[in-house]
Protein: 16S rRNA (Guanine(966)-N(2))-methyltransferase RsmD
Amino acid sequence: MADQVKQLVAHQVAAYKASLELQQGGRTGGKYGSESKLHRQLRIISGSAAGKRLLSSQGAQTRPMMEKVRAAIFNMILSRAGSGAQLPPDARWLDLFAGTGSVGLEALSRGAGVTHFVEMDHWVVRKVLGSNITTCGFNKRSVVHTAKAEEFMKKAKALPRYAGGAFDFISMCPPYLLVSYPELFGLLEGSPLIHDRTILFVEY
Structure:
């Protein structure tokens, strides 16, 4: 399963790079360019919101995780968590670099109690992420932080109970070419966002 995930992620990285190159080469002005063109090609795979279609943009900025990658990741997590087909009902999930919210919403659909979404782009939060949360009916179980993931993690280190404390699951799916992974890992090391049994996955 781990090898399958690596192959799928490698495919997604290549697709993301190609999309980013096309977007940079084809910009005609404006802050968001093709980001304003939305479609509903993404969907929730399993759980209470299975089949719900999610908004995403045609640009590369929201970087939605491919469904095959998402399915493989959740199969691994559910197997390791030992909770059968559902996440524990009191599980807390942190979706860093949330974008469309597809990962955190998948977690909620599969039984997580609450998901905190961290996304820095106000337009994405307003037009994409917020809409997807509403579409899935998860407003009461979702908390959105409009902030850079790095700043969110720095604030958590300064305020240990920030965002309610540690999370049981953390997903981090950054824009591969635009972040410093050593910085991100350094912020996670010893972070109060993590406890001894936290399951963390990073798309690298």
Observations:
- Helices lie at 2-26, 67-81, 102-109, 122-136, 149-158, 181-188.
- Residues 36-202 form a domain with the Rossmann fold fold (CATH 3.40.50.150).
